[in-house]
Amino acid sequence: MEFVVSAKNHGQRLDCLVSLLFEKCSRSAASALVRSGDILVSKKIKKPGYRVKTGDVISADLDGPAEKNQHLEPESLTLQILYEDHHIAVLNKRAGMVVHPGAGNTSGTLANALVYHYPQLKRLEDKCRPGIVHRLDKDTSGVMVIAKTESAGVFLKKEFKLRRVSKRYLALAAGEFREDSGQITFSIGRHPVKRKKMSIASRRERPAVTLWQVKKRFRQAALVEVELKTGRTHQVRVHLSALGHPLLGDTVYGFRKKNIRLRDPGGQGHNLIPRHMLHAWKLSFLHPWSGQRVEFKAPLPNDFKRLIFSLDQEAFPV
User: Fold this and answer.
1) Is 85 among the catalytic positions?
2) Which of 66, 120, 227, 273 has the fewest Cβ atoms within 10 angstroms?
3) Would you place residue 61 in the very low, low, confident or very high pLDDT band (cuts 50, 70, 90)?
4) Percent over 70 (pLDDT), the chain
């Protein structure tokens, strides 16, 4: 993670700034990471009390030594593989699967499954995120590309960083959309109070651009295609919520009055909105070996299709 110091942060202590910038990092933890060299300023080790200057580039690895040395246990977990060759694998990640180990999730992750299905990934430099070049939220389903070689990983990470990867999502959002399409340009940053959330009212905002288009309208919601021009954390969820149309099932960014709950019309009583309804639908990028642009689509999961069917039937909220 990198951050360029702006004029408004000039003169601030390094450890204080880091603790404000990054989630789950107290000032004492930030100080320890600075001393250990896990946080650098313009590629140089500084003391925790260093006063940052405008233009300084703070690079941080907030996983820390514990995660770096963590042994990633291979696990025989089912993966839906859409495509693979010697260089990449393209997967349809299921909702509910965490991408890599972290606090509270030390097993059952996509990373655990990857080292089981592709043992060669253990030889890659990043031991805890083998082959992982981008992420999806735990409850977001859809297409992901995995790098099977070190060179493919370096190439793809650069493509994502330079925003040359096309990312399109399908979302079920609450409310009646007055327009057929639009663009959202609210800047996004860490929530000023709730550090696990993102917000358009952050003190550390970063530019974010989302394009959206209604594909189908229902009585209570709409199926929306979303294209990300930037890759901020929780970007689709934050932007659609700011527009007044939170994702169905989003308990973090949703509004109670608009976050409807539907029951299975078959009479089984199952809640049809078990998660935030967001699916990474299409991913287009340059192949790291051929240089040709390729595109992959992930089919809609069953919970998404069931909810669309229920909305089509104009099911009433409970």
Assistant:
1) no
2) 66
3) low
4) 86
Q: Is the pLDDT of residue 142 over 50?
A: yes
Q: How far is CA 17 from CA 23, 196, 232, in A?
A: 12, 17, 20
Which token pair is 66?
């514990």
CA atoms within a 13 Å half-sphere pointing along the CA-CB vector of 304 = 25
The Cα–Cα gap between 168 and 5 comes to 31
What is the band of 162 on the pLDDT scale with cuts at 50, 70, 90? very high
Average pLDDT, the chain: 87
Average pLDDT for residues 187-200, to the nearest whole number?
83
SS (HEC) of the chain: CEEECCHHHCCCEHHHHHHHHCCCCCHHHHHHHHHHCCEEECCECCCCCCECCCCCEEEECCCHHHHHCCCCCCCCCCCCEEEECCCEEEEEECCCCCCCCECCECCCCHHHHHHHHCHHHHHCCCCCCCCECCCCCCCCEEEEEEECCHHHHHHHHHHHHCCCCEEEEEEEEECCCCCCEEEECCCEEECCCCCCCEECCCCCCECCCEEEEEEEECCCEEEEEEEECCCCCCHHHHHHHHCCCCECCCCCCCCCCCCCCCECCCCCCCECCCCCCEEEEEEEEECCCCCCEEEEECCCCHHHHHHHHHHHCCCCCC
The Cβ-side half-sphere exposure at 11, using a 13 Å CA radius, reads: 2
Q: Taking residues 127-149, report their average pLDDT.
A: 93
Average pLDDT (217-240) is: 95
Catalytic entry in 38, 56, 126, 137: 137
Alpha-carbon distances, residue 184 vs 105, 170, 309 (angstroms)? 33, 16, 28
The two structure tokens encoding residue 308: 């669309």
pLDDT for residue 3: 81
